[in-house]
Amino acid sequence: MLHGYTPPARFLPYLSWTDIAALPDRENTVIVLPAGATEQHGPHLPCSVDAVIASGVMGHALARLPAEVPAYALPPIVYGKSEEHLHFPGTMTLTGTTLLATVTEIGESVYRSGFRKLLIANGHGGQPQVMEMAARELRLRHGDFVVLPHSVWRMPSGTAAFTSEREKKLAMHAGHGETALMLALAPETVRMERAVAEYPPPFPIASLSADGRPGCAWSTMDFSASGVIGDPTTATPEQGQVILDSLATHWARAIEEVYRLRWVVREAPTWGRGHEQGHVQSSPSRV
Questions:
Q1: 57 within domain boundaries
Q2: Which residue of 48, 220, 258, 281 is surrounded by the most CB atoms within 10 Å?
């Protein structure tokens, strides 16, 4: 069914428009938008990894919420900005412009529906800047809209307990963490017998990369023939369950905090000399 990992009672599209119109306290109800991608993740993982992880983690988080906390998920965005993986079949990508417009227009629809809190849970490392740009645009348009763009992996995951120092420093794609989590969320899609390890060479300019990760623009093919950047070979379902439990528990707590949050409300911007100089003039207040 369309709700996937989300409890049906927490899936906004299962409500009618009259149900939504009748919701109490819509301005503090948290709407969760999982944002993923469809792109290669090595020979051992499906191309759906980022979408599965974004929707899976947030679905499990919503299942852990107290019943009195109003929060609903939207269907996930399953196509993202994935140009760095274009050398590999199965990668489906939007341009940054298209993705920015998509997220912004979804946000506008959320706002028109009477909601004032939107959490964008991003599962793809190639597009956080787009999510942040959309969130800022929505905030500038609507001074009572709280938009929070964050990586699904932002919360404590416990992954570090299972990984080497090299993995902590250099892994970026289809490595241990993603593989373990997929073994917990969708084990039928994982082919561990195909798993291989590949790492990028440490970036040679220490002042531009303290941990050795690439300090310049790159594509996956620059340092990985398999599409893997990391070591997935030691990942297990048990480790994945630990990671899932940790992420979901912490995200449930964060969603509840967002529901209770009372943030700055401002008037519409005054478009004048200040805006031309890169500033928005407004009259801030707090609620």
A1: yes
A2: 220
Distance CA 222, CA 215 (A): 13
- Terminal-to-terminal C-alpha distance of the chain: 39
Q: Which tens digits make up the pLDDT trace of 161-177?
A: 999 999 999 999 999 99
pTM beyond 0.90, yes or no: yes
Q: In angstroms, rounded to a whole number, what is the distance separating the alpha carbons of residues 148 and 154?
A: 12
Cβ 119 vs Cβ 148: under 8 Å = yes
Instruction: Read off the pLDDT band of 268 (50, 70, 90).
Output: low
Tell me the H-state helices in the chain.
17-21, 49-63, 96-112, 128-141, 165-170, 176-185, 237-260, 273-276
Note down the domain range covering 226. Answer: 9-268
Name the nearest CA neighbour of 44 among 234, 199, 200: 234
* Residue 269: per-residue pLDDT: 66
φ/ψ bin of 25: left (φ > 0), alpha (ψ from -120 to 50), beta (otherwise): left
The predicted-structure confidence for 118-151, as pLDDT tens digits, reads as follows 999 999 999 999 999 999 999 999 999 999 999 9
The CATH number of residue 108's host domain is: 3.40.50.10310
